[in-house]
Every structure is written in structure tokens, then in C-alpha cells.
Amino acid sequence: xxxxxxxxxxxxxxxxxxxxxxxxxxxxxxxxxxxxxxxxxxxxxxxxxxxxxxxxxxxxxxxxxxxxxxxxxxxxxxxxxxxxxxxxxxxxxxxxxxxxxxxxxxxxxxxxxxxxxxxxxxxxxxxxxxxxxxxxxxxxxxxxxxxxxxxxxxxxxxxxxxxxxxxxxxxxxxxxxxxxxxxxxxxxxxxxxxxxxxxxxxxxxxxxxxxxxxxxxxxxxxxxxxxxxxxxxxxxxxxxxxxxxxxxxxxxxxxxxx
Length: 258
Prior knowledge:
Elements: H1 2-20, H2 28-43, H3 46-83, H4 87-136, H5 143-191, H6 194-257
Helix pairs in contact: 1-2, 4-5, 4-6, 5-6
């Protein structure tokens, strides 16, 4: 638009000159064309394009400098982070992994051992109940009923033995887990990971208290089972003595008849 306005102004000045100097009429078209051509050539000249290109190149250069600065800052932060990974820090991280793993091992073996001790205690109590029912009915049962009671007692004996084997197997794993946790706690303490060492030692104490409670319950069941065995021996001795008394009475009656 600016070029068009310049062309119009040049045409007006040329027309004014024509009115003042009629002899210049032949020059008017050529001058106007020259002026417009010159303005248009200036507008589209390579110099202006080069100036515009230089300006854009400057903007790209500024953006490139900003990108390089950002990369330098990021590289500095990364270098600082790498420098903080010393041998001591790496050892503490490794010890933390060991303490976490050993604590998980201890937790799982503790649950397994407590569950085994619980099932063992229940099996012992069931055997005691079956045994006492049989002792209470000795001499009152038929041969078939007595066989059924004996089969039930033998089945419960096998169940108690099976549960006891489970307790021994899981107890062995639990002891290994406790020892492993103690070693991990010691390693964490010497490497400077005091918090991890304290956490493992606390887990050991909790696991030991829980297992001791389960052991106490199973020990009470075993004590009652031992008492039941003593009762069984006494009851069977009394039952055998009653048979001897009956036979002795029959023998004396037979002698008196003679």
C-alpha cells in the first residue's frame, strides 16, 4: 500500500509539472513508470529480504543459546546427583534392600509357624476329647462301637503327628529367618543405616513374642494330652481289674457249688 501511495504521489507531481510545463508531456509516462518501478524494486530488493532473514536468524540464534544454557544447567544437576552416589550411600541402599527382604521372610515364616502351631493345638484338643469319650464308655460299648472309637482315636493320633511335623518344618524356617534378620540388622548398623537396623530388631521382637504365645497354647494342649494318657492308663487298669474280680467271683462260686 505504501508503494501504491508513493506511485500516486509521483503521478500527481508529474501531472502538476505537465500543467506548468506542457513541453514535458512526453516525459510523464516514463518518469511515473520509473518512479513506480524503482519503488517496487526497492520493496522487493534482495537487500530487504536479507535484512529480514538476518532478523530471523538472530531470533534462532537467541533460542539456540537458551537451549544450550538449559542443557548446561541440566548437565550440572545430573553431575551433582552422580557425585552424591558414594560408596557409603550405595552400601546403605543395598543394606536397606537386605533388611526389607529379611523382614518379609521373617513375617511369612512367622505366620506359617503360628498357623501350624494353632492347627496342632486344635488337633491335640480333638484327640483329647475323643479319648475321654472312649474312656467314659469303656465297658459299655459293643465290639463294633469300640472298634469305631479306636479308629477315631488312631485317626486323631495320625493328625496330631502330621501337624507336629508341620510345626517342626516351619519352625526350622522361622529360626533361619530370625538369624538372617539379626545379621541384616548388624550389617545395617555397621553401614550407618541405624533406622533400618532398629526396624529389623523391632520386627524380630514382635515375631518372637507372637511365636512364644502360640507355643504356650500348644504346650498347654500337650500337657492336657499327657494327663489324658495317664487317665487312660488308670481307667484301663481299673477295667482290667474289674474283669479279674468277676472271674475270681465266678471261680469262688464254682468252688462253693463243688
